[in-house]
Structures are given as structure tokens and as C-alpha cells.
Specification:
Layout (H helix, E strand, L loop, with lengths): L8 H17 L10 H18 L2 E14 L2 E14 L3 E8 L3 E6 L3 E6 L4 E6 L4 H12 L31
Antiparallel strand pairs: 1-2, 2-3, 3-4, 4-5, 5-6
Amino acid sequence: MNLSRKKPLLSFVFVILLVLAPMASAQEGNDQPESEWARIDRILRQMSDFLTSAQSFGFTAHELIDEVEEGQRIQYSNSRSIVVRRPNRLVGEAYGDLVNRSFWYDSRNFTLLDREFNTFLQVPAPDTIDALLDEIEERLNMVVPCTSSARMGHCGFQVKRQLEPVLIGLV
């Protein structure tokens, strides 16, 4: 089962919600209580606006994935780190139970190293991060995990309202 295709951004968003929630509750003004969905949407937009305006930043997202295999629950953990320097530098690393890869982008080349299989790939790349990510999505039909925040435009988070937000624990 290829678990690396699961969306790891959810764990990143959850951590950001926990970090930004105290800042959001300190806002002045409105006496009306804010709905949970409006609060989540506002916090995600604030985070997105902040990351969009930053010329360089980095973060690490930790993810836990529970799978049930043959009636037994197995928990996998991965970490993904991204460092961005706009408009044309990007480095990332994913490591853990399910993945052990790194990538580098320097405005000329995109290099991917897979430590598990001891292989690497280097290809010529476009001159901006946005163009690189667009090309990867179009040509390979895949999204590089945790990179939506590296784009120059809005991060594009969408809060799905099919699930109720639940605080599971503090990180």
C-alpha cells in the first residue's frame, strides 16, 4: 500500500492552528462569538497571508498515520522539512517510516535523492518555484507535499466542512 500519497499537509495545518489560535483569540473588537469554521478559515488565511509575504522561511511538519492491516493497527510517522527562499530556491527533506527523500531546486536544476533506493534524479528546471511546482503537477500529475506555502500567491487552503474540528492534543 503506497501511503506516501496521503496528504501530509493536514498535520502541518493542524500544528499551525494550534500555534495561531492564541493569537486569534486576542483580537479586539467584535462582541459576537465567531463560529468555529469562521475562526479556522480566518486563522488559515492569516497564516497564508504571512507565508505569502515572507521572502524566506522554513518549517517542519510531523505526521502520524494510523493504518489497520490484517486487524492490527500500525502507526507510521514521518517528518517533512521545507526551506524556501523566493523566488527561486527551495530545499526539502522527507524522512520517517514510509519515506526517505530529499530535493533541491536552485533555479536551474531540480534534484531528487531517494535514500531508500540509493538513486537520484537531476533535471533542468524553470526559473521560479511557482513554474517548477506547476511543471511537476502537469508533467508528473503529482503534488509535492507541503509546498503550497512556497508559492507566491495565496496558499489556497480550503476548509472542508464535512468534518467537525476536534482538538486531539497539544503538540
